Amino acid sequence: MDAEHPPRTEELTRLQASGLYDPLDSNAAQRRELLEYLLDRFTVDEIVYWARLTSIWGVAARAVDRPPPFVSARHIAARMGVDVQVVLDLRSALGFPVSDPAAPSIPEYAADDLAVLLMGADLYGMEETLALTRVIGWAAARVTEAARAVFGRSVANLAPGERTELEMAKANEAGALAWIRAQSVMSHVMAEHPLRNISFVEALMAGDLRVALGFVDLVSFTSWSESLSADDLSEALRRFEMHASSIAAERGARLVKLIGDEAMLVAEEPAALCSAAVAICEMADVDPVLPAARGAVGFGFVTARDGDYFGPLVNTVARASKVAEPGSIVATAEVTRSLDPTGWTTVHIGPASLRGVGDDVFLSRIVPRRPQVAPTVAR
Fold first, then answer.
1. How far apart are CA 31 and CA 375, in angstroms?
2. Long-range CB contact pairs, 236-239, < 8 A, 24+
């Protein structure tokens, strides 16, 4: 054993007693290599503690992402001068319900976060604050799940010879470091969004939100999805969402959400949303796996709440998307009237009776005179 890696006899004996090391096991050499790596970063007690809470490969991540001290909901409530139920409600809205208010289960820094949320409650009321808090919790959970999926795929792609216990631990450590850095990216993105949506915020403040709204879905989704393996389906839908989001952003629109196979889009101007919807259909056409896409675009007043949109227009456009032929986009009369005739051709298809919509809706197929440039699809 060289000077850089001194003998670990005493530590290994203690780890053997804890059940984390067996010199007679067929995997003993790999486990010892991992434990010696961990002993450069942790005490034996720390390794045993973290191995009980995670996997032995996950212990290394704690070197770069050491959890903070934990306190109880009652401690935070007393510190902030509020009823403990307020703390419980806010933590639950974030997606972290507290089962025992007296147990130290909340990161100590969460007290500062809750103080910010309480400031919001003073300004806008507790119900509105809880609604926003739920959106924050949902968004953070989704980002976290996406990051986990990326990490999982990277590990799955390791060659068999690279999947030693030490390499798995190093992958966990690198993933934890990347996640810490990604949190600063999220902070910057959230700060930038209001700067690029000033007119949207002004419309919200005036209580007069008029937007272009659209839906684009995949044709014959059920039969198509049943023809693919779970992995291939997941990859195809991930690609659909990724390209739909980038196409929308490039054209001044935004992907609100993906509901199964259906993308919901919003923009301030109808032309921007029409351009995005057509380009998404073109993207699906050239994708080697995705079926054809179709959609509809409308323009009018909506109610914005919790990062989503509601109202008769939403229902009308969602129903109208089912009328479109594969590979095409239909639009309401409000949209076609706003389009520049030098850039768009409209083909009237007449009034349509849509389920759940009282009056017939006049729809037209919209076709750009200038071709939309869809991104090159890579598998």
1. 46
2. 236/287, 236/289, 236/290, 237/261, 239/287, 239/289, 239/290, 239/377, 239/379
Residues 348 and 271 occupy one common structural domain: yes
Angstrom distance (rounded) from CA 363 to CA 323 = 9
Q: Do residue 257 and residue 140 come from a single domain?
A: no
Beta-bridged to residue 106, according to DSSP, are: 71
CB 84 within 8 A of CB 72: no
The C-alpha atoms of residue 175 and residue 179 are separated, in whole angstroms, by 6
Q: Which residue has the higher pLDDT, 187 or 260?
A: 187
Determine contact, residues 134/93, Cβ cutoff 8 Å.
yes
| Nearest Cα residue to 269 out of 256, 257, 252 | 252
**Domain span at 85:** 70-195
Residue 126 maps to a domain: yes
> Beta strands 293-301 and 361-368: pairing type?
unpaired
199 pLDDT exceeds 90?
Answer: no
Answer yes or no: is pLDDT of 204 > 60.
Answer: no
